[in-house]
Amino acid sequence: MRILIATAGSRGDVAPYTGLGAALAAAGHEVTLATTDAFAPLAQGAGLGFRRLPADPRGHGRGGSGRELMRTAAAFVTELGRGFADAVAEGTDLLLLSATTAPLGWHLTEATGTPSLGVYLQPAAATGDFPPVITAMRSLGRAGNRAAGRFALRMADRVFAPAVTELRRDLGLPPLSAVAMRRRRERENWPVLHGFSTALVPRPADWRPGLEVAGTFWPHVGPDEHLPGAVEDFLRAGPRPVLVGFGSMANGEGERLSEIAVQALRRAGLRGILQSGAAGLAADGDDVLTIGDTPHALLMPRLAAAVHHAGAGTAAAALRAGIPSVPVPVMADQPFWAARLAAIGAACEPVPFSGLSAGRLAEALARVVRQQSYSRAAATAAAHLAGEDGAARVVKAVEPLAHR
């Protein structure tokens, strides 16, 4: 079966689907990843086909006010919607849609009859268990959380509305609002398999049928991939170091963050590895190493702890490696994942990005590295994750569709 996985956003919104795509390909399917140009090498490295989606994710890694984020998101989605049908509709038997692309992909399903499944990296449906994950708000109680979740979905529909209007016109479909299409899919119990672990988020009991937690979708790592020689040399040269990285966040703040990180590591008496990322972290010294893109699956099991922005993928990778975290969330769903790490005891309380200082980071590092309760909680979570296989769950869900 010809399967197309459509996703867009930052690297963390794309990389997990490379492992999912590789698992589907190993099951005998022809798999293509539709995403933005910047991530074509990720698709190709996993042995997947690539199809370009017409948007540029660069410049979407900074925080800001709610209104600013809404404007940024609307501009990105509108750009994404233009040409979306051409990118994903031709020669496809099944669409797998991320939370970012589903509100567009639903209309392609209507126009072409191509079946679709959701493969989300975050819990998006309203629930009483927690408030909407992108708002960083505290729990409002079960009724309040559900109301806030429904409101967040309405705001998302507003973001997608212009793109949906254009897309339906291009597809020759009658007008239908983004909110009306979402409600239609909910009434149909449109299936969504969520690519995160129940160790962090058990399936809410008040979710509708069709919404399931599958387990984490891991980025593809080839069997021949290994750590660079310089990294191996550094790891062997002393005690386990701490990773510091902010992924696709904090553009232009590398100098400040690097200084904070190095000072904090030295105050805590720890060696460190800085992962440059979008911020451009960099430092020199016998006790610190700067690296570029390096698979977390290969590096994290060799570490003492990780300081990170608490993106869904990085948070899960630290748990999988059984190491504690110091979460420093920046925006969007990151405060949610940071709070979940802390709730299960595998991380200290989140350190707000705006309040990050060398002293505060040193204190947090010393605590998570030297208090064994954090490592024990991370190891317990690692054992839980080892019993899950998100990609296999998706492969199984796809099988009945292949024989239609």
From TrEMBL:
InterPro entries in UniProt: EryCIII-like_C (IPR010610), Glycosyltransferase_28 (IPR050426), GlycoTrans_28_N (IPR004276)
Gene Ontology terms, MF aspect: hexosyltransferase activity
Keyword Transferase in record: yes
A biological process from GO: carbohydrate metabolic process
Coiled-coil features, chain-numbered ranges: none
SUPFAM superfamilies (UniProt xref): UDP-Glycosyltransferase/glycogen phosphorylase
Domain Glycosyltransferase family 28 N-terminal, first and last residues per copy: 3-72
Keywords: Transferase
Domain Erythromycin biosynthesis protein CIII-like C-terminal: 285-399
Name this polypeptide is given: Glycosyl transferase
Annotated organism of origin: Streptomyces filipinensis
